[in-house]
Amino acid sequence: MEESISLKELMQTLKKRMSLIILITVAAVIISGAVSFFVMTPIYQSSTQILVNQSQSDEMAYNTNTIQTNLQLINTYKEIIKSPVILEDVIKELDLDLSTGALASKISFRSANDSQIVTVSVQDPNPNQAATLANKVVEVFQTKVVTLMNVDNVNIIAKAEVGENPSPVKPQPVLNIAIGFVVGLMLGVGLAFLLEYLDNTIKNEQDVERLLELPVLGAIAQIEDQELERPVRSERNARLRGETIG
């Protein structure tokens, strides 16, 4: 019985504060959409691919051990690409007004398990700049790794290119609006229950019974002004009719 009453009170609270919940939810959706479209800077991504493959002579067999060695080198190469020794040359050759740390934050890697192909991606507000940075980073790395690791096993298999109509990878307005909707709805519902919890006014006889734990013996009904005027007007009309007849 108590659970059904609690559920009923819950629904009544939501219904009572529905306008507030809708208002907060709509406001959150509008704000998240406005920020996504007009405030946040679009970021574009461009990627290039490199193949880590140990160079073989005609006499050397291309065996499983060689492949495993190349796979183990990939993690090392990922750290070398983002190291100052590579990025400083990139900044110098492209005359960039960036620190090595800022440039490193733009670079990311992706490689499938047991794959010797590594995808190097660069994000930038300018799609052309993103492609230029991606290509230059792998070019410098390919040159430097020969002296750093004393190996020549890196080949560029796909250069970064800019499409006709590049699309930003972030922000994602639809996702942000969906998040804003959920957050706004949760905030509205939470605020509705908070206001209901802080509202300690007595509104009906049920509140009296619940708070004072006493039975209600009687209640004074609320009478509108129009209802009070109706009998007075009727009595006046009857008096006037009596005087007219007399």
TrEMBL record:
Question: Start and end of every Tyrosine-protein kinase G-rich domain?
Answer: 142-194
Principal location listed in the UniProt entry? membrane
Q: Please tell me whether the keyword Transmembrane is annotated for this protein.
A: yes
Indicate the transmembrane segments per the record.
20-44, 174-195
The superkingdom of the source organism is: Bacteria
The listed locations are: Cell membrane
This protein's name: YveK family protein
Q: Which InterPro entries match?
A: Bact_polysacc_biosynth/exp, GNVR, LPS_length_determ_N
Membrane topology designation: Multi-pass membrane protein
Pfam families recorded for this chain?
Answer: GNVR, Wzz
What are the Polysaccharide chain length determinant N-terminal domain coordinates in residue numbering? 3-94
Provide the alphabetized UniProt keywords: Cell membrane, Membrane, Transmembrane, Transmembrane helix
Q: Which family does it belong to?
A: Belongs to the CpsC/CapA family.
